[in-house]
Design a protein that fits this description.
Blueprint lengths: L1 E6 L5 H9 L12 E6 L3 H10 L3 E3 L2 E6 L15 H5 L4 E8 L10 H32 L6 H15 L8 H4 L15 E7 L10 H4 L3 E5 L1 H8 L3 H10 L6 H13 L1 E6 L4 E8 L4 H8 L1 H5 L1 E8 H7 L2 H7 L3 E3 L9 E7 L2
Parallel strand pairs: 1-4, 1-5, 3-9, 5-6, 6-7, 8-12
Antiparallel strand pairs: 2-4, 8-9, 10-11, 10-12
Helix pairs in contact: 1-8, 4-5, 13-14
The structure holds guanosine-5'-triphosphate and magnesium ion.
Length: 344
């Protein structure tokens, strides 16, 4: 999962990136893209790893991407534009300034949010208008045109002209034919209000908070936290009443936002967490491990993590009958421990 961090200038993107990744940005690196892979903390993987004592333990990973700035949409070179850079992100983290300070105007989270969100809408509108023009020319010339694509693009146009981002229309944002466009306003968005150290409240911006996925991070505080030793961090957490670090909270929210769940594979060689979409079937899960696993899928042996906890060991669970053999139509659940049977 790749999450792109965006926001207006000086909203605290770099600060939040550091808080989320423990990566320290060296000065003068603003123009450069930054990317960091972060391990998804999961107590279940810790436990399974203790139980199986495997050679390797592999946690799921999240990638955070912070595009270099100085490349806003106005830029001529499309390849370099910020929009081109975040095309392949699965979701966006939209940082909104909600702190004051020397040299800063009073925070206006509501209008700041709208400002950038409008840019997404305009960006997608321009792409669609151009594309529709092309398709219309093609039709006039008697070329073969995908009618469904035209219809969907017109629906997108309609939606955007009403100033509604495409992510609000799930039929459009999930339409297979439109995937290649990677519309910015169609990407799931997590809005992060970047608050002062002494404020952990969501701002009074109901127009946003009622409609968008929102959370608060005290960016500066969390940035400091991310750089502390484990012992120092503990005191700090108590002092500022932080129950879970921004790192963990953002990962959790991102999984929810994208509708992702984890399943596990276990053994003496490797205990591993895998990430899939909610609703994925057993062969899809097999396919995330290897395409051959999907092709040759026969059955999946499933034991839920909780049933393993209840039974104590895999063999006990088998005796109790909680290990089940499932076929192609089985919907994988969060926490399933899966053993695939396949032909290659
Ligand atoms: N008080 C306070 N200051 C913050 C917070 N987050 C960031 N700042 C300060 O705000 C300024 C901008 O933060 P950055 O993280 O550099 O913001 P940015 O969005 O990366 O800025 P650009 O890359 O220039 O667009 C810095 O001086 C930060 O120290 C916060 O949560 N509270
Ligand atoms: Mg920055």
């Amino acid at each position: 999962m790749k999450l792109g961090i965006i926001g207006l200038p000086q909203s605290g993107k770099s600060t939040i990136f550091e808080a989320l990744t423990k990566n320290i940005i060296k000065t003068g690196s603003k123009e450069k893209n930054r990317i960091a892979a972060v391990t998804v903390p999961d107590g279940r993987v810790d436990f399974l790893s203790n139980m199986y004592n495997p050679k390797k333990t592999i946690y799921a990973q999240v990638e955070y991407f912070l595009p270099g700035i100085g490349t806003l949409s106005k830029e001529k070179n499309k390849e370099q534009s910020i929009w081109a850079k975040i095309r392949d992100c699965d979701a966006l983290i939209h940082v909104v300034r909600n702190f004051a300070g020397f040299g800063f105007e009073d925070p206006e989270p509501f209008s700041d949010f709208i400002k950038l969100d409008q840019e997404f809408i305009v960006e997608d509108l321009v792409v669609i208008e151009k594309r529709l023009e092309r398709l219309e020319q093609d039709m006039q010339r008697g070329r073969d045109v995908n009618k469904e694509e035209v219809t969907l693009l017109k629906e997108c146009l309609d939606c955007l002209e009403k100033e509604i981002p495409l992510r609000k229309n799930s039929a459009l944002s999930s339409a297979h034919i439109l995937k290649g466009y990677a519309f910015i306003s169609a990407k799931p968005q997590l809005v992060i209000f970047n608050n002062e150290d002494d404020n952990d409240k969501i701002p009074d911006a109901e127009d946003i908070t009622s409609k968008e996925d929102c959370m608060v991070i005290r960016g500066k505080l969390e940035q400091e936290l991310a750089q502390m030793s484990v012992e120092d961090a503990e005191d700090f957490l108590n002092e500022f009443n932080i129950t879970a670090s921004a790192m963990n909270r953002v990962i959790k929210r991102s999984y929810e936002l994208l509708g992702l769940i984890s399943f596990f594979t276990v053994g003496e060689d490797e205990v591993r967490a895998w990430t899939i979409k909610t609703g994925a079937k057993a062969p899809d899960a097999a396919g995330t491990i290897h395409t051959d696993f999907r092709k040759g899928f026969i059955r999946a042996e499933i034991l839920s993590y909780n049933d393993l906890m209840d039974a104590g060991t895999y063999n006990e669970a088998k005796k109790k009958g909680t290990v089940k053999l499932e076929g192609k139509e089985y919907c994988v659940k969060d926490g399933d421990i899966i053993n695939f049977r396949f032909n290659v």
